[in-house]
Design a protein that fits this description.
The protein is globular, with a radius of gyration of 20 Å. The longest helix has 29 residues. By secondary structure, the chain is mainly alpha-helical.
Length: 218
Amino acid sequence: MDSVSPSASTRPVFDRKLVIALTLYLTALFASNTVGIKIMPFIFGTHLSTAIFAFPLVFLTTDVVGEVYGKAHARAFVRMGFYSMVVFLIFNALSNVMPTSSEFRMPEAYNQIFSLSLRFTFASLMAFIIGEYQDVFSFFFLKAKLGGRAFWLRSNLSNLWGQFVDSAIWFAIAFIGVYPFRVIVLMMIPWWLFKFGMGVVYTPLSYAGIWLLRRSER
C-alpha cells in the first residue's frame, strides 16, 4: 500500500511569528507578576516596581498584534493572558496549602513571596482584563478615526488610557479602606505615568515588531 503524505489542508496551521509574539506577551505578563515584587529607588524620592521594564510590553504586544493580525487576535491574546494568570494562581494557591518539608530551608522567604492575599489576587486579575480590553478598544477606535495612520500615536494614546484603567482598578481594589483616598491617588498617578513613559520609550520596539510580523518568511 502506498504511503499517503498529509495534504496541506490536513496539516495544522502554525504561525510561528504569532506563537513567538504570544510567548513574549505571556513572559512579560508573568515577569511583571513575579519579579515585579522588587521595589527600586527612582527620581525625586519615588520608588518603582521592577515590573516597569516588563509590563509595558504587555500592552504594546497587543497593539502590535492588533495592527498586523486584527482586533480578534489582540483580544485573544488578552484572554490567553487572563486564563494563564488564573491557572498560575491556582497552582500557586495549591503549593501554598501543601505542608512544608522539614528539609526545605526557606519556608518563610517562600511564603513571603508567593503567599498572595485574595484581595491582591482579585485586584491583579480585574485590573489586567479590564485595562487590556480598554487598551484594545481604544487602539482600534483611534485606528478607525485616523484611517490606520500614525501607529505611534494610536499605540501611545491607547496605552495611556489602558494603563490608567489598569492602575486605577488595581490601587482601588487593593487599598481602598486601607489608606485614605488621597494617598491612594498619590501612589497611583506616578506608577501610571512611569508605566506609560516606559511604553513611549519602547515605541521603536513596536515598529520593529510590526516589521518582523509582516516580513515574509523564506
